[in-house]
Amino acid sequence: DGPTRAAVRARSLTDRCTIDGSQPFATAAAAMLGATANVCIVGPEHVRQIPGKLFEQLACGRPLLLLGPPGSDAERVVAGLAGVTTADLGDVDAISRALKALDERTRPIGAPPGFSVSETIDVLESALFSAIP
């Protein structure tokens, strides 16, 4: 949180940015479910990894912007999914286009009635452990 807070202050963005720091899963899930859109960032060092947060955000049924290196494993996972758009983390113009496209294509998807992030994650976890010994 320290470097993030310092970067926000250095850019005079404290009135536009809120940094909540680490939160309990239930709090984070509620925020993701209530978000206009979620953003998942994949750093260049993780090009061949798929962050667990990506699956949590997909399970929330909200529009999603994936930022990271082109051709990353995470990008391949979301390729062609409705409500998801991607952009290279270092390309400001691509991010701008992706945000505009996300807004136009995905007026809120919303979670279905009775949807439970916790139950969905439990099912995904069971399925993955069953499929991958």
Notes on the protein architecture:
This protein is mainly alpha-helical. It has helices at 2-10, 25-34, 52-59, 73-78, 92-105, 117-131, and strands at residues 38-41, 64-67, 84-87. Helix 3 (52-59) links the parallel strand 1 (38-41) and strand 2 (64-67). The N and C termini lie far apart (36 Å).
Give a quick set of tags describing it.
133 residues, mainly alpha, 47% helix
Brief rundown of the structure:
By secondary structure, this protein is mainly alpha-helical. It has helices at 2-10, 25-34, 52-59, 73-78, 92-105, 117-131, and strands spanning 38-41, 64-67, 84-87.
Per-chain topology:
Elements: H1 2-10, H2 25-34, E1 38-41, H3 52-59, E2 64-67, H4 73-78, E3 84-87, H5 92-105, H6 117-131
Parallel strand pairs: 1-2, 2-3
| Helix/strand structural class | mainly alpha
Largest sheet strand order:
1-2-3
Query: Can you tell me the overall shape?
Result: globular
What is the overall pLDDT average? 81
Over the alpha carbons, how many angstroms does the gyration radius reach? 16 Å
Poorly predicted segments: 104-110
Number of strands: 3
Strand content: 5-15%
> What series of H and E elements makes up the topology?
HHEHEHEHH
| Number of DSSP helical runs | 6
Measure the end-to-end span.
36 Å
Largest sheet: 3 strands, parallel
Give the proportion of residues in helices: 40-55%
